[in-house]
Design a protein that fits this description.
globular, 11 helices, four-stranded antiparallel sheet, four-stranded mixed sheet
């Protein structure tokens, strides 16, 4: 008997997804314009708690991946990808990737009563939860040495760089005896801020010294849940990279239309037209790759690991190239702190290292295709 045919790939946005995009974009336009982001990252609290409250609870974006029975929206990866596109377009300083995607996916994989309780809190936007794992940890890569359990859930060790740890309420800690939920403000927990290239996604080193936590899963279940979360995170990160590239292309085209040289718009020069045309083709291809990854994750496709690896291998470079072109084609103003172009270049460069480099994902593509390295 032949196996059932796989569901056809759907790269188009549904009406529901477009409505979600409209709501998120409207919120970000009102509360997260470039001036507001620049002002916030100059302070010691880059995250905007009020913006996160409205995004997470008001729009319900924090619970998109959480089933309705646990208080979530019961949506999926396609909807979460739309949110990340818009957050990338705004370089928004919110912990969506770490809390609403990575931590949520890990908790869903634990399937315990304790993880279900925490998922309800995350879906309602009452807590921010991040995994105490290096942001550079990639799908298919060896896990770092786990934290140590010296007995009765007393945890010790350190990990970093951990994204969004400073503003988190709960840390998910992988120890040698399982996965634990550790209150970020508990005794024995310290979070040391690190110098980050992308100031909108702060990094820290997490150190535990006799900290107490709630056991969520045994070691095998925890590692499987983290592996699944890394795959989903890498696939959805491609949508954030797409949003970065789209903003850079749109802003650059608008600038070259209005900026004149020799009494002609800069955009009328043939050489610049060619550069923008190539960039447009890159962004269009990145959109297809990112949507394919989101759709594969949403449908649980058998080739989701390959589709995610392709998306990351491609979208990572496109975001960086788009941001570099944006800075260069804006001329002198593109090099200033006041212009937001540097926010997107830094986010694109940081994203190119998060959840695996493009080189790592190209290696995965080669492995999946059974192409040996030279």
């Amino acid at each position: 008997m032949s196996s059932p045919a796989a569901a056809p790939l759907d790269l188009l946005y549904s009406e529901t997804e477009e409505e979600l995009r409209t709501a998120v974009r409207s919120l970000l336009a009102a509360r997260c314009d470039s001036a507001a982001v620049l002002a916030r990252i100059e302070g010691d609290r880059p995250h905007d708690p009020e913006l996160w409250r409205v995004l997470a609870a008001g729009i319900g974006a924090a619970g998109l991946l959480v089933p309705e029975k646990l208080g979530g929206q019961g949506a999926g990866h396609r909807e979460a990808a739309v949110v990340l596109e818009e957050l990338g377009r705004a370089a928004a300083p919110v912990p969506y990737l770490t809390s609403a995607v990575l931590a949520t996916e890990i908790l869903l994989g634990c399937e315990s009563a304790e993880s279900a309780d925490l998922l309800r809190e995350l879906a309602a936007g009452r807590r921010v939860c991040v995994p105490a794992l290096p942001l550079t940890l990639a799908p298919g890569a060896p896990f770092p040495a786990p934290f140590r359990d010296s007995g009765a859930g007393s945890l010790g060790g350190s990990a970093g760089p951990v994204a969004d740890a400073v503003g988190a309420d709960v840390l998910l800690v992988l120890a040698d005896t399982g996965l634990y939920a550790v209150p970020a403000g508990a005794p024995g927990v310290s979070r040391t801020p690190l110098v980050a290239l992308d100031l909108t996604r702060p990094l820290a080193r997490v150190t535990l010294d006799g900290a107490a936590g709630t056991l969520l899963a045994d070691p095998a279940t925890a590692r499987a849940a983290i592996a699944g979360a890394l795959l989903s995170g890498a696939g959805l990160l491609a949508s954030e990279q797409l949003g970065i590239a789209e903003w850079c292309l749109t802003e650059t085209v608008a600038h070259l239309r209005t900026r004149h040289q020799f009494n002609r718009p800069l955009g009328s020069f043939q050489a610049l037209k060619h550069r923008l045309a190539r960039l447009w083709l890159d962004v269009a291809s990145a959109r297809a790759a990112a949507r394919a990854a989101a759709d594969a994750l949403a449908t649980g496709a058998a080739d989701a690991p390959l589709t995610v690896a392709v998306a990351q291998a491609y979208c990572s470079g496109v975001a960086v190239r788009a941001a570099e072109e944006c800075v260069q084609l804006h001329g002198g103003i593109g090099m200033t702190w006041e212009h937001p172009a540097h926010l997107y270049l830094k986010r694109a460069k940081a994203d190119s290292l998060a959840l695996g480099t493009a080189g790592h994902h190209r290696g995965l593509v080669a492995d999946f295709a059974e192409l040996p390295a030279p």
